[in-house]
Design goal:
This protein is about 25% helix and about 25% strand. The protein is of the alpha/beta class. Helix 8 packs parallel to helix 9.
């Protein structure tokens, strides 16, 4: 099981490496990842037959290589993610499939790539069955089922129920099996995912829903997936999910299905955030400290172009300060609003969903001090943009106290390298 969360207002080291030295060497804003913690989280899920990493959470090829060497397979949601997986050393094929394509549509590039490499597809819409069947008859597929309910830390991360675009509606599963049979395709897997950052009660409800759907599909199934959505603690009040209890629930479902079908059924889990969120920090420099009425602002050189979760979902990220000069053992805290450099009022890291600005107790700091936005290893760098013509941040992976650059800071020329002024 994961260790107890450690929240601290002052942090001068990360993975045994000086925070200030990281900033001096690689600049800011900077994403930094802890390799050991990613490997530990994969090991935490070792009771499952297959740990399949949802790379959309953090898809740098160095992270994918790390995950692959730690024994996890990979999920891809686009043609680009398939290319990333192959670049990181995942070979298409295998039993279970090393790479799975999961989506609600095929764009033309993705369908071409899936057919070219024989990549297993986790189908999220009935039309995908026809599109794949016409190009690759005889394929095996997994059905991603929307069980009719969903949950998550935000409505925007809820992937189940009538308002979600994701998955095949639960009462269409048998129709999809019949549709697949027209192309001599076999449904060998079943997958459900109801939302990101959901709670144990709702995660456990998926067990019953998947079991009922599996029974309606029948003995062609050789694999079931619990999906993802495992929460991680972002606040001191948050707790880890009981992974042992969660596995037992799913294992009981698996055993009942094996008894009904008369053969083994593989049990997969598909973590994204759970593997990488805690392992990453966004290191940024305080560039201004100012008072606006009753609010004190720390304005940093990272913005929602680097970390979009607060402006998208009102997501909470713990923060800490690395002072330039050594401070007191017990820091003097003050209520602070943390914002970025973008020409956008919503560029605030301490906001709740709906855009409501909140102050946060943080140590008193000065211009030049470093601020760490923690638990930023999932849905951080992967959601970055060039808004306000800001270059993408660099990324660094630390393994056994050795930092390695895994993504160079984007050059300003890269911002417009693919833009053209038409000739008169």
């Amino acid at each position: 099981m994961p260790a107890t969360s450690d929240f601290t207002p002052i942090r001068t080291e990360f993975c045994g490496v000086s925070v200030s030295e990281l900033a001096q060497k690689y600049g800011t804003p900077l994403f930094v990842y802890d390799a050991a913690l990613i490997k530990e989280r994969i090991q935490d899920l070792s009771e499952f037959d297959v740990v399949r990493y949802a790379q959309k959470a953090c898809s740098n090829i160095a992270i994918l290589d790390l995950v692959r060497k730690a024994g996890a397979l990979v999920d891809s949601v686009s043609a680009g993610e398939i290319h990333r997986a192959i670049k990181a050393g995942y070979a298409p094929g295998g039993d279970p499939p090393r790479i799975v394509y999961t989506a609600d549509v095929f764009d033309h590039d993705a369908l071409d790539l899936v057919v070219e490499h024989g990549i297993h597809v986790n189908v999220g819409s009935p039309d995908m069955i026809d599109q794949l069947g016409e190009r690759a008859p005889g394929s095996t597929i997994t059905l991603r089922i929307n069980p009719g309910f969903g949950h998550g830390h935000s409505q925007k991360t809820n992937t189940g129920g009538e308002q979600s675009k994701h998955g095949i509606w639960f009462d269409q599963a048998v129709d999809c099996v019949e549709r697949a049979a027209k192309y001599d395709m076999t449904v060998t897997g079943l997958h459900m995912h109801i939302g990101s950052g959901t709670d144990f009660e709702h995660l456990s409800e998926v067990c019953d829903a998947l079991e009922k759907t599996a029974e309606s599909i029948g003995e062609s199934l050789i694999s079931i997936s619990a999906g993802g959505g495992l929460p991680i603690p972002y606040t001191e009040d948050d707790t880890y999910i009981d992974l042992g209890k969660y596995f037992q629930l799913w294992n009981a479902v698996r055993k009942r299905l094996e008894a009904k079908f008369g053969h083994d059924v593989s049990l997969e889990i598909e973590p994204g955030r759970f593997l990488t969120a805690e392992a990453g920090v966004l290191l940024t420099e305080i560039r201004a400290v100012k008072t606006m009425g009753e609010n004190t602002f720390y304005l940093v050189d990272a913005g929602f172009n680097n970390l979009a979760r607060p402006i998208l979902y009102g997501a909470y990220h713990p923060m800490s300060i690395c002072p330039l000069a050594p401070g007191e053992t017990e820091p003097d805290l003050q209520q602070v609003v943390v914002g970025g450099p973008l020409c956008e009022s919503g560029d605030i890291f301490t906001q709740t969903e709906g855009g409501f600005v909140n102050a946060r107790p943080l140590p008193k700091a000065s211009v030049g001090d470093l601020l760490l936005i923690e638990r930023a290893g999932a849905y951080g760098a992967v959601m970055s943009s060039n808004y306000n013509s800001k270059p993408f941040a660099a990324e660094v992976l630390i393994d056994t106290e050795r930092p390695s650059l895994i993504r160079a800071r984007q050059d300003y020329a890269d911002l417009f390298r693919d833009e053209f002024i038409p000739n008169d």
